[in-house]
Predict the structure.
Amino acid sequence: MKTIFSLCTALLLACISVLGQIPSLSQLKTEPKTVTTGISFTLHSNVLNEDRIVMIGLPDGYEKSTKKYPVFYLIDGQWGFDFTKQMIDWVSRTRYGFMPEMILVSLHTGGDNRTRDLTPTKDKNNGGGGGDKLYDFIRDEVIPFVDKNYRTYNYRVLGGTSFGGVFVVNAFHRDPQFFNGYISLSPSMWWDNNILLDRTKDLLIKNPGIHNRLYLSVANEGLGMRVDSLASILKIYASKSLLWKFDKLPDEVHETVSYKGYWDGLKFVFADWHYPMVDFGTKEHLVSSIDSATFGNIKHKSIKLSDDVLKTRSGLYIDNYGRAITLFNSDNSLQFYSNRLPDLTLYPETQSKFFLNKVDIQNKLYVKGFDIQFEFVKDDSLVVTANGKTDFTAKKSKCPPLVKLPGTILDKYVGTYSPSPQGNSMQLIKEGYLLKVNDDAHPVYLYPIGENRFFVMERETGYELEFVQDASNQVSKIKISVNGNVVFESKKLN
């Protein structure tokens, strides 16, 4: 006992001695890495006739990829840039998939001129009225600068809080479909005798066909902000094609509404997002190529290929966006399937080059004036080009040859399975030509390689799944193996 007590005393004294020798900052060796969420620079505006501070944050891995990204334009970057950038980076990770990775562009709109810059009219008591000029600066100078220097989709969102929220509502009034989504948090709708309430009502009455997304929220600020009044106008006059949402956040104050508001607002704007091929268009607004005259009239002729050649092209591919793409051999063509893209048919022009027909390009991808080709440059590499320029690349996974199963067979495997001896149960559902583990946070797809055999790639390890039937030809369990060795089984519950 005495020995143990002496040891504890010695350790305690040693800790006190160490704590008494706290080093000064000058004694520490600092790391050469700068911690940052983006870059900041000064951009001269001809519209405003002054210099403005612009901040840009790029997704992780931007420099090493060829991806294109939507852009979120944020007002009041002096307050919201850092936390918004960190939030987007976290929730856009592939595992969660709440929203796509995106470029964040923000303006410094603080200081003495904030009221001048963000409000749409001059109020007799509060001044202001420069919002239209700042909007012209963003539309005519900032956005062209960003599109020229960065890889962007033609998909952009505008967000702001307080007077920044007023700026967003005014931008919606001026160009209700220029941005693809508008996020306005605790906007001061009382400005200049509620002028934007009247303008919004007039806009909706005169333009019943507006289609877009508009997100509103308000903190515990009461009816004086008049955001409730704006929501009432939308409820009466907004068309079905204008998707909007109004959240009341009673646990937030004016200074904290941005933290939850941008998170909820971006989720709403990107609720139906899919990663596009070539560019992001919609059924109502096709994206037209500037080279339509050159590429829109290109003619392709399909040739006959042997099944052996088509089988070498079919398989499971992972593209540089992280999308899993399956190509199935079917009727002298390849059936293209991905959970984040529409089903497509690729027609052979040579043994290594395939093309999309113009009808699918316009009706399924919502773009026109594009010539889209798929070239297998190696047995395991695929390059997709749009109007002669590389759009994305894909690499073939080490997976057994895929087969295309009819839905009646896939239906037999749908159900709930419980691992043995114990563990969390999993639910299998049918999605297109595949089976899917029904988990929104981390979906896993099963690729058919036989009538009762499937392949799945998880964390760079390939697994084979075999569905086993009982004496009455009912599916009873799954055997899961790696390199031919069964690692566990899962019993079907229903």
Remarks:
- The chain has three domains: 39-269, 287-396, 407-492.
- The longest helix spans residues 131-149.
- The first strand starts at residue 39 and ends at 45.
- The domain at 39-269 is CATH 3.40.50.1820 (Rossmann fold).
